[in-house]
Amino acid sequence: MTVTLVATKGSAEMNVWAPGNDTAISLGAEDPYNVTVVLPTTGRYKVQVYQMRASARRGETANYTLTIGVTGGATAAVPSHDALVPGTKYHATAEISCVTTPGGKPGACKAGVIRKGGGNATIEMETPDGGQRTIFFTGGKATGSNATAKLVATKNDDITTVRIGAAEIYYIPDALVFGG
Predict the structure, then answer these.
(1) Distance (Å) of CA 105 to CA 128, 154, 170
(2) Measured distance CA(72)–CA(178) in Å, rounded
(3) Residue 78 — pLDDT band, cuts 50, 70, 90?
(4) DSSP state of 104
(5) DSSP secondary-structure letter at 33?
(6) What is the DSSP track for 143-157?
(7) Contact (CB, 8 A) for 139 and 25
(8) CA separation for the pair 115, 67 (Å, rounded)
(9) CA-to-CA distance for 158 and 178, rounded, in angstroms?
(10) In terms of C-beta distances under 8 Å and separation of at least 24 residues, what long-range contacts does 66-73 make, across chains too?
(11) Which residues, at least 6 apart from 114, have a Cβ–Cβ distance to it below 8 Å?
(12) pLDDT tens by residue, 82-109
């Protein structure tokens, strides 16, 4: 999907949101005018056009043109070359290190991955406290989750650290996302 914002009067920026996620795929501060992304899931996406707070306080207005294009087919149509773990829908299963309570100690989350190729994957986890968490990867980067809290992902060597809200931390190895 490609989204382009052109302000014809004043200034405007945008965020792009995946269905069911409170974490934007692209925050305006990172790329306020052009977003090109492989969609992590099907559904209704939201584009939020906004004005910076200082401009709004001054009573400024903005006119803009927003162009949205979607090309290609669903990644689910691309066959995976991974075999499934017998008796599951997953291409691999693992236990990954995770923290699920504020100030908690690391534990082990049971994880299963559905790979779609090219670093696009859905990781479903069962937390030690019996909860469930799903994290979406696009092009090898964590792009969203099924949580309502904000997702922040950082990369160190071959581990992506995903923080969700103030309590949850997941340490996801590249091998789980890409295979290997």
Answers:
(1) 11, 20, 12
(2) 21
(3) very low
(4) P
(5) S
(6) EEES-SS-EEEEEET
(7) no
(8) 30
(9) 11
(10) 66/3, 66/4, 66/5, 66/14, 67/2, 67/3, 67/4, 67/6, 68/1, 68/2, 68/3, 69/1, 69/2, 69/3, 70/1, 70/2, 70/39, 71/1, 71/2
(11) 89, 90, 91, 121, 122, 123, 124
(12) 678 888 999 999 999 999 988 888 899 9
| CA–CA gap between residue 143 and residue 151 (Å, rounded) | 8
Q: What is the pLDDT of residues 145-162, one digit of tens each?
A: 998 889 999 998 889 999
Q: Please state, as a whole number, how many other Cβ atoms lie within 10 Å of the Cβ of residue 168.
A: 24
Which tokens hold the place of 60? 């400024």
Tokens standing for residue 143: 């792009």
Question: Which two structure tokens, joined as six digits, stand for 18?
Answer: 């995946």
Closest CA to 107 of 170, 34, 14, 37: 170
